[in-house]
Write a structure and sequence with these properties.
- The protein has 24 helices and no strands.
């Protein structure tokens, strides 16, 4: 018995303790998370303040859309380039430089008084901010041991989800109470805090210029031309009436040429800038397909709800933002238990549950009326927030767990690019759907309320009588009455269209459920699969 006890004690002493992250590691993780928050916040922080910005710099409504499009266009190009640039300059040097440049471009935007200067500043913000998202994910994957990875990826995932929700609220409050310029000036203290964390948390590194000169320049050129053009086509296509516009036609050809260069670089380059070979790993490929689809749904809902509240309910940016923030509440409530859930539950169960709840949240919003206001969306937003956590958190972790540690930079770039591209595609489809269906419903309602309609005649007569009592001018009163009916037709067609769009989104998200069955939960301590390499 004594020998057995001694032998057991010796065996227990021979088992090394599980590795734990150091203080410096957690500081680096905090830096990566703060950088991601800043980048995701700036995607949408100008949305609420856009009318004030356009008035200040003398831009029309159509021109003002480039303030958002410029950021998205450059961000989506930088995201897949971040892994290569990190290898060239070193992680610490790259992030410190990006943080300093982000401050400079933010100041340029805040001080700008013309549209060209604003667009240049936003493009610069997109390039430098876009690097923060995949590098933050890479820091977590490389600095935390597998046992603590769920905690790091949970924090990162929550920030990526909450950044776009906080953006319109913060931007709207700053524009209403201080100045629209502070939508950009607020980045100064945040970036200074980020620089401090980077200096403390990341060890100095040296550039590897040979990686710069041996780069896949064919793929880089294709990536820059293809993705930037594709983003502009998707963002501006509906406003420009798609292929009726010579600009959209030209950019479509440029995008196709860029994609051809990317495909060619996969064959000719020793280390392609976009590691599409990672898609031969079925575990990773399933994550990318799902996150593309879920990204389309997430961006679509974040566009639909504020539009409805603004156009139908008459809410301002701050009021709409408070309703949007409800979806962030479940994330905060679930934060303490989420790492344990991610570590113990099958990813497929979590993602399927999230997708089904997404579908339910959309179906809760298909019975909208012209009287629907913010409190009518409380339950759907809470269900939606729970769905976001259950769907996106496992996907975030599964994308990193499916690849080897040295591949994490390329994998993070492809993952975030897929989410953003999915969002752009989703918004383009939704914009087209809303425009076409609203036109259809308006025509149908006008046809049903014709001059020969008894109900229509009664409404015109009662409206004219009311205005005649106010003004004493019958011709003017009849015009006002007809105008009221036209406005009601427009409002009702909008309500029907938004209800239909929520239904379509719900069906699209439900269709992603079979894809979630391809996911596999990584085994603790198991080496990530590198299939296809």
């Amino acid at each position: 018995m004594a020998d057995a006890a001694v032998r057991d004690a010796a065996m227990s002493e021979s088992v090394p303790p599980a590795p734990r992250a150091s203080t410096a590691d957690w500081i680096a993780v905090a830096a990566g998370a703060l950088g991601a928050l800043m980048a995701t916040l700036d995607i949408s922080i100008t949305n609420s303040a856009l009318p004030q910005i356009q008035g200040e710099i003398g831009a029309t409504g159509t021109e003002g859309t480039w303030i958002s499009t410029g950021y998205l266009m450059s961000e989506i190009v930088m995201i897949p380039l971040a892994a290569w640039l990190t290898r060239v300059f070193g992680l610490r040097n790259f992030l410190l430089t990006n943080s300093a440049l982000f401050i400079g471009f933010s100041m340029m935007c805040g001080w700008s008084h013309t549209l060209p200067v604003m667009i240049v500043g936003r493009i610069g913000q997109g390039f430098t901010g876009g690097a923060m998202i995949p590098t933050g994910q890479t820091i977590i994957r490389t600095r935390l041991p597998l046992s603590q990875l769920p905690v790091g990826m949970t924090v990162f995932g929550l920030i990526v989800l909450l950044g776009p929700l906080l953006g319109p609220v913060v931007g709207g409050w700053l524009a209403e109470n201080i100045s629209w310029s502070w939508c950009f000036f607020i980045n100064l203290p945040v970036c200074l805090a980020l620089i401090t964390l980077l200096v403390v948390g990341l060890a100095p590194d040296r550039p590897h210029w040979e990686a710069f000169f041996k780069a896949d320049w064919l793929g880089i050129a294709g990536l820059a031309a293809g993705l930037s053009s594709l983003t502009v086509v998707l963002e501006e296509g509906q406003r420009e009436r798609w292929f009726e516009s010579s600009m959209i036609v030209a950019l479509t050809w440029v995008s196709l040429a860029g994609m051809a260069l990317i495909a060619l670089s996969q064959i000719t380059a020793k280390k392609p800038i976009l590691r599409l070979s990672l898609m031969r790993n079925p575990r990773y490929a399933s994550v990318i397909v799902i996150v593309f689809a879920v990204g389309a749904g997430l961006y679509g809902i974040s566009y639909l709800l504020p539009q409805f509240l603004s156009l139908v309910a008459g809410y301002n940016a701050q009021q709409s933002g408070s309703i949007m923030l409800l979806s962030g509440l479940p994330a905060f409530l679930m934060m303490p238990i989420l790492p344990r859930v991610l570590g113990k539950m099958d990813f497929r169960v979590l993602v399927v549950s999230g997708l089904l709840l997404f579908t339910l949240s959309c179906m809760l919003d298909i019975s909208l009326t012209a009287q629907s206001v913010g409190h009518d969306f409380v339950w759907s937003q809470l269900v939606r927030g729970t769905a976001q956590v259950l769907a996106m958190m496992p996907l975030n972790q599964a994308s990193m767990a499916a690849v080897a540690r040295e591949e994490s930079g390329d994998a993070a770039g492809l993952y975030n690019m897929a989410r953003n591209l999915g969002g752009s595609v989703g918004l383009a489809i939704i914009g087209t759907l809303i425009d076409r269906r609203e036109t259809f419903h308006t025509a149908m309602l006008r046809e049903s309320i014709s001059a020969n309609s008894l109900i229509g005649q009664e409404r015109v007569a009662s409206g004219a009588a009311y205005w005649f009592a106010q003004t004493g001018d019958m011709a003017y009163s009849q015009l006002r009455s007809l105008g009221q009916i036209a406005a009601q037709i427009q409002q009702q067609s909008m309500v029907i269209t938004y209800s239909e769009t929520f239904w379509v989104l719900g069906i699209a998200l439900a269709a992603c459920v079979p894809l979630a069955l391809l996911l596999k939960k990584p085994q603790p301590g198991a080496k990530a699969s590198s299939a296809g390499h």
